[in-house]
Amino acid sequence: MTGADGGPAPDGSPVADGDRESGAELGRARWPEVGESVLAVPLGATEQHGPHLPLDTDTAIAADLARRLAARVPDVVVAPAVPYGASGEHAGFPGTLSIGTRALEHLLVELGRSADRFRGVVFVNGHGGNTEALQAAVRLLHGEGRRVLAWAPSGPADDSHAGRTETSAMLRLRPDDVHLDVAVAGVTAPLPELLDALRGGGVGAVSSNGVLGDPANASAEEGRQLLETWADDLASAVRARLGHGS
């Protein structure tokens, strides 16, 4: 997140003008400053995002949305982002790093258990491949009586990875890291139609460039609108599920 001076985000990335949000960063706080807050944990991935987007796209978007949440809802503290997830479906592409579903589930369970001094925890998930582990972890944590919420941004079924949606978001957040000169469409079939092939052979089995969607017509303005809409939805979910007022 940025401070009043418009500095860089916690991950060191620049933040577009108009997207500088305030809010508490757990990593920069001292323990007496934390209090009984809601902890927002950005959950991302390090994986290929086509030839035109950076490997940390999911992490960057999740971290930005957590910062926006902190600007909208009082007493939200943003944890350092988790940059690795369950990304085995992208293993055929260089640069992808994955800890797998089981390890991720254990990681999230232990993070949730360790956060008992917080009023509640919201995992802000930027990668669809993390969903199975996240759902299992939240079920277990709920069963233990902990206040935990899992949330993820929505998107079109035929634009699920490195297409127009994510490209627009990154054009808003880190335009210098988006290479539109090599941005081309991949497979544009709806994700449910691709699941069997994805489970059998990964993303490379259905898309040679790693894109599930079409980045054509992506724009920073569309990215601004998407990020605002997602952040509003996230804030509403936190208020409703973790009992936080405006």
From TrEMBL:
Entry cofactors: Zn(2+)
Stretches for region Disordered: 1-31
UniProt keyword list: Hydrolase, Metal-binding, Zinc
Basic and acidic residues bias locations: 17-31
Stored InterPro entries: Creatininase-like_sf, Creatininase/forma_Hydrolase, MftE
Pfam families noted in UniProt: Creatininase (PF02633)
Low complexity bias locations: 7-16
Residue ranges of coiled coil: none
Stated family: Belongs to the creatininase superfamily.
Name of the protein in question: Mycofactocin biosynthesis peptidyl-dipeptidase MftE
Gene source species: Prauserella halophila
